[in-house]
Amino acid sequence: TLTKNYTNLIQSIDAINILSGSTQNTNLGDGIAKAFEILKDPISKNTRKSIVVLTDGIVTRPLDPKNKKYPEEFASSIANDIKSKGIELYVIGLGKDVNTSFLTSIASDSTHYFGVDKKESLNKIYDTIATAICTKRPAIVKTYTISTD
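Given the sequence above, the corresponding structure tokens read:
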């Protein structure tokens, strides 16, 4: 769920394990759909809604034995549905074998796609996205007159 607790967020991210020495699969469509379900939470009712996806850019799930392109078609369909509901979709492709054209196509537009070879570049990208998402507003200042008579 959405949280403002930074410590819990970092602990949740640190708890993610990627198995080494085995075949990895990416189901981008279901990942985006899950993020959308979280955004439907009442806590986020009146807020700007954006999804930031970090992926290796090689979509391999779900499978359809009759259609090799199904994983990308499925992810594209989910992404288009979510974008049609006014949700911004930022996509970060990490790695050298990233399918840039596909990832750019599922992002809200070409400015919402970022490709990077090294994880060390992610901080700059996340800063760029955070700056784009977060709106700076003028401070609200209330003035009170206090009589000392």
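Residues 20 and 26 are 15 Å apart (CA to CA). Try to locate this feature in the token string yourself.
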